[in-house]
Amino acid sequence: MDDPFTLPKKPKLTVHEGGKGKGPGDGALTLTAKQAGFLKDVTVGRKTASDAYRANYDVSKMSARSIHTKASELMAHVVISARIKRYWQGEERARQSDAASKGAWIIEELTAIASDPKTTGATRVRALELLGKQRDVGLFVDRSLDETGLDVRTPDEVRQDLEQKLSTLLGKNHA
Questions:
Q1: Which span out of 5-19, 23-37, 97-111, 137-151 was modeled with the highest average pLDDT?
Q2: What's the predicted TM-score (pTM) here?
Q3: How many domains does the chain have?
Q4: 44 lies in which domain range?
Q5: What mean pLDDT comes out for the span 68-85?
Q6: Are 99 and 82 within 8 A, CB to CB?
Q7: Rounded to a whole number, what is the distance in angstroms from the first to the last CA of the chain?
């Protein structure tokens, strides 16, 4: 089973520029064409690390375990891992922005429907209800009583209440 996010204990930190090996402190941190292809397949292509490795490297003489190991090393590569993280953070920001935009559009449309004089009564009421249910307004939302709060009675008051309830129960049972 391929796990694209398993990282080796000591990641390979060799960074390449134009096919020549460079150390992490030797200037620009760029990727080879194969590494860039791997990165693109993992992010945009949404492939597993092993599948991305197979797509960009010659694996004809490699075992599945070797492919997985090499793919894991690439996932741990300082530049690749940073770019993958940045890519997914951007994706998440875009999803949140898109959801907020859609929410604003829906509210605008419901407002237009509710304020349009041509809108029928039932449609207007439904639009107003949906507008009232939005999180910022909070109308027409079922609420439940929170009975998990702290009891503010003193221990003596609790004891007295229990004794009264017990005597009432015992009195009814013995009568």
A1: 97-111
A2: 0.47
A3: 1
A4: 15-84
A5: 94
A6: no
A7: 72
